[in-house]
Amino acid sequence: MEYIKITANSQSEALQKLRQLYGNDAYLFEEKWIEPDTFLGKLFGKKRFQITVGIPEKKTPQLRPQGPKTEPLASRTSYTKKSEDFRKDELLQLLEEIRKNRLIARELPPREDKESFQAPLQKIARDIEVIKENIASRSLFTPTDKDFFGLREALFKQGFSARFVDDILSDARLALAPQDYRNFRRIYEKVKVLIEKRIRVSPGLGEPQVIALIGPTGAGKTTTLAKIAAELALRRKRKIELITLDNFRIAATEQLKVYGNIMGVPVRICMRPEEFRRAVEESTAEMILVDNTGFAASNDRFLEEQKAFYDALPSRAEKHLVLPANMKAEEGELVMEKFAQIGYDKLILSKIDESLSFGAFIELSESYHRPFSYFTTGQNVPDDIMEARGDFLAEKVLERYRQKNEGETLKKE
Q1: Are 211 and 317 in contact (CB under 8 A)?
Q2: Are 266 and 348 members of one domain?
Q3: Which of 124, 317, 387, 391 could form a disulfide with 203, with the two C-beta atoms 3.0–4.6 Å apart?
């Protein structure tokens, strides 16, 4: 396997380069922010984001066609396979029209009368609107089977992008026999499997001694940590220790101490990176679970302070980013982007019981190459947590769609 480093201005840009060059054949090993290596760069330059990836042998970089299956939410656009050739032809014509009008504008002498310049621009604007309307009117589905009992609308309500929805419906149409286009039960089962295949999961914890939960304020890190600790200490009889780096929320620290006393697990509070390093080195526990301060993703100072704690460790910690399912999609993307400064390996989707839509987080997980490790479904410790399963989340995505159509099917029967 060949190891390649890709450097860009941000995590999303680096991952986009990775997908363009190697598609899904690359293995992501490391992410980090790097300082400029020249003297002037250190004075005036900006940090760059670098990822290290493994490329299977005999795999050469190649640019992929536009329209990958996954992309950051901010760059989502509508896409259908049947409209691809149409869009290319129309857009090429439009670009030629723009080029011609630019040449005309260069040849015209300066005039105070601005109306002579507005006409070509207005025509281009009208052409763009016509193209947009034509693209929107071209559907991959015929009127008789369109939307598969409202499935398209249901997936949009789940927060999926137009591209994701078109991919799922296109694959479902190809997988189903024409006579099943109006069979709700067959559609539901096929689409559930297709969505499940797009959900990245890596259930539970890995092997490192130090396991840390990081994330924004209110994500449910402390409660989730207590649930995992209870599973390890009480059910699996593992020797564990709890460490909190949360020096701002006294209530959260006291809450963790109460959980520790109930489980018979020691709890330590670390105020500084050196103290954290010593605590880890002196621990005799099989696993150390670490709770972190919650803060806004836009607070770069706190991100740097938290990063310093993990940089001080002699060995690598496995970090799980906790994202509440009731968070807005744009906020979730910002959290994933900013917390990359600290680095994280997996995602924990918390507060599933407080949300009705999950599509945005499925696409974020796919776009950022980060699998789900746990789902939390309530406040009860230690019960309301489960190791991540794709079928469970796919069923949650389609739950309201299933309930609505099952009810209508029963009425007809």
Answers
A1: yes
A2: yes
A3: 387
Residue 246 lies in a domain: yes
Which tokens is 166 given? 């078109």
Distances (CA, A) of 182 to 1, 177, 188, 273, 367: 47, 10, 11, 61, 32
Nearest Cα residue to 280 out of 308, 242, 249, 318 = 242
Domain assignment of residue 110, given as a range: 83-137
Mind listing the pLDDT tens digit for each residue in 13-69? Answer: 888 888 788 776 676 767 788 877 665 555 556 778 888 877 776 544 544 444 444
pLDDT tens for each residue of 137-190: 444 444 335 556 688 889 999 999 988 998 898 888 888 888 887 788 899 999
pTM score over 0.90: no
CATH at residue 255: 3.40.50.300
Over residues 221-255, the pLDDT tens digits come to: 999 999 999 999 998 999 999 999 876 666 667 88
Q: Which helix (H) or strand (E) holds 51?
A: strand 48-55
Which phi and psi angles does 240 have, rounded to 5°?
A: -125, 170
Burial of 297 (0-12, 13-18, 19+ CB in 10 A): buried
131 has which bridge partners?
none
From CA 164, how far away is CA 177, in angstroms rounded? 22
Is residue 367 within 8 Å of residue 375, measured between CB atoms?
A: no
